[in-house]
C-alpha cells in the first residue's frame, strides 16, 4: 500500500479539485487478507466488504488463475490443483479478514458489510445505505450519475445476452470443486456474514 500512498501524495494529498476527497476503490478480493496493512497505510480509512456466496466467487477466481497459467506457463494446467489452491487461498483470505475485523473495533466501526445479492437486486438503495452509514453526502448529481451508469450497464448486458455472448463462463466442477463441500468448509462464513 506504499505505492498508493505515493500516488496519493503525488496529487497533493488526493484532493479532487472541488474540495472533495476522492476515494480509492480497491475491488480485488485479495485485499481481504491485508486489511490490517491497508488500515495501517491509510489510518481512518473506511471499508466496504461485499459478501458474496463463495460458491459463486471461487469459481471466478479459479477461472482467473487458469487464464494466468495458460498465458504464462508452458506446461499442462492442472484444473483440480487450481481448484484446491483457490479454495485454500479464499478461505485464508476470509479467515484473516474476519480475524482482523473481530480484533480491531475501530476498523470494524469504519466498515460497512454489504450483501452482494442486495447490491445486485437494488443497487441504488444499497449505495444510499452505504453513504448514510458513513455519513457521506448522497447528492442529486451523484444519484443521476449512478442511475446513468446502471442504465448503461443494463443496456450493455442486454445487448450481450441478445447476441448470446457470455463474457465469463466457468463452473466449480471443472476445477474439481463441490459446492456442498465448500458450504460445509466455510459454514462459519455463511452463518456470520451471509446470514445462512
From TrEMBL:
InterPro entries: P-loop_NTPase, Stf3_sulfotransferase
SUPFAM superfamilies: P-loop containing nucleoside triphosphate hydrolases
Descriptive protein name: Sulfotransferase
